[in-house]
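Appendix B. Chain record.
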Amino acid sequence: MKLNIQGLARASAKHPWRTLVVWGIVFISAGMLSQTLLAGALTNSFDFTNSPESKQADQLIKSKITGTQPDQEFVIVSSPKYKATDPEFSQYTASLATKLQDLGPAMVSSVVDPLAAQTAQTAQTGAAPTSNGDAAPSAAQFVSADGHHVLLPVTIAGDPMEAVDKAPRLQAVIHGTAANQDFQVLVFGQATAFADNKTLSEEDLKKGESFGLMIALLVLIVVFAAVVAAVVPVVMGVFAISVAIGLMAFLGIWFDFSFFTPNMISMMGLAVGIDYSLFIVSRFREERRHGLDKMDALAITGGTANRAVFFSGVTVVLALLGMMIVPTTIFRGLASGAILVVSVSVAASLTLLPALLSLLGDKINWPRLSRRSRVDQGEIEGGFWDRITRTVMGHPVVALVGASTLLIVLALPYLSMRTGMSGVDTLPNELETKQAFVLIEKYFSGGLSSPTQIAFTGDPTSPEVRQAATALQAELAKDPAFGEVSSVIPGKNGDVGMVNVTMAGDPSSPESVASIERLRSDYLPTAFADSGVRPLVGGQTAMMYDFFHVTDKYTPFIFLFVLGMSFILLTVVFRSIVVPAKAIVMNLLSVGAAYGLTVAVFQKGWGQGFFHSIGFDYIRVPAIEAWLPLFMFSILFGLSMDYHVFLLSRIREEYDHTGDNGESVAFGLRTTGSIITGAALIMVAVFASFSHGRLVALQEMGFGLAVAVFLDATIVRSILVPAAMKLLGDRNWYLPSWLQWIPKVEIEGKSGRTTNREEGEEDPGEPELVGVGARGD
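Structure tokens predicted for this chain:
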């Protein structure tokens, strides 16, 4: 079975201008889609594609009680000079409320001025109101105990997602009113928090892309010693990112993507887009050095490097497909974005890049910055990589045991990993959202903007239900994780009801999420035992709790899927069961070490001083992002296989030429050493640049990916691979007789070199060449 990837490269090279026109149309179309549709494709919320309890509760609440709940922002007014009882304070809040209401009904549905409400209630009853746990909180709940802080709830009109676009106008009015130095005015809510997160994400994206591109270009110049050869992979990476983001914007018509997805697409696009191009350009230059003319060199490249790129991309996509199994939009959105950019990178590398190389020819080496660009350094025996390889293979047992032990030790902190979700308290201190939340959490309740909602089907006015709600209030009052509990809120038809429970702290904190377990398994069954209704717990915190449990439930299946599919693919590609088994074990070691180091740095705080000293202000958190381990596993397993495919394909190519396992390993490592190292440095630089951002989720993701790629390209590739292949010898290529029926899908192609095993065979530049090994399999 032969995939005609070489024919695709040859056709693209023969018709370069047609190929460029087609890709140009794709690029322009993607840009137009991004401009018009990208904003509507992104969201900060996540949903389930199955029906856990939190989703059932939310659907019941939306359909029969509240409808689509509008976004509510909380404006906090603080004054160290005045108290809420002072007329100056009430005058200030009244003026602010008027200006907010003047934004109009299309912008603001309602503004509550608690001081004005207090005055009105006092005039009617003769006494100031107190907190009573009603569905509509009393004015007293929005005045701090010390009297120096007042909350103004502002309901944004329209759909909650539309509130994100309206948040800047709200903030502009607030900042314009805050000129009085006696008062500080800040705002916090779901819309403003998302707007600030989106701004941070976009700023981090620009910074990460700029730094990553700069480092990538420098590394490529060093590797190729030629400017044009260095620029081409960078252009390919940027091209892949632009097209993938345009495709994501188009798919956003039907699906929502996390606002992290563009960052992830840029990070992955720079990494794989540049790396794939690097390998192809490098092989083309090598074949030209062997004396082949341009089209023959492109044909050989198509039968070797292009094939390796194709199967590497397939491996990455298969690993990412594992995340699609998890029934949550965040995993499916991130996986879809990564699959898009990897697929575009592969497609462009197999077609657009051969067309560019056909047009450039030897201009790819212009201007030469060093005589080194004229010499095939990889084939020089006794060079740096050759010495390392032979040293390792000279002491294979020591090398294998030592390197494996080191990776296992680095992975040990993973055993104490806690997973959660980063909340507002992990945002930068200078951010207004963070400052407002800190004050609200300190003087009021951190969960005001996203209460936990308990819904039930039944008569909300029955004595049993009201008694249950009273009992629940009494029990939750003893638990410091919970704040105010409302009375029963009836539904539209009187057949359903709900109770709102405010979390005392950050609704996203591990403590708040853990309290959902107590609520569901202890408090609710006890309080509602005799009510005749089954309560369902919904709201943001409950959704996080269910998200964590869904992730834990599906993780083993994803691991089995990714490992199984990778094993099958590599078995077919290399016609060996030893090579894929060994590759899987080695990749698991590097992924485990990356997990351990991520936990050590972010959860345990190890090395924080060192990282701060070199400009990486990593944030210590109580828990690692719940989606990160599974995401990192899928990404890293795919990327790690990249190096294995490129390296092992070169080793297998030489083994088919010579039949000498030891020399083939040495040849494969020394011919790919500088290229894979350059590719790894680019990936590390790109991932590290994104870890330099201010969002803790991106910090963890960038750090983990950078560490894993570094370990894989150094310890795994330079020590474990040659040591294991030396010990196994020809057994590396063992395929049981009962598996000989497996289709022979080759990625090995003939190089321009002449070896003893190639004597008498066809000239590799002939059109009949399809990139098979010298054995003619």
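Further analysis of this model is presented in Appendix C.
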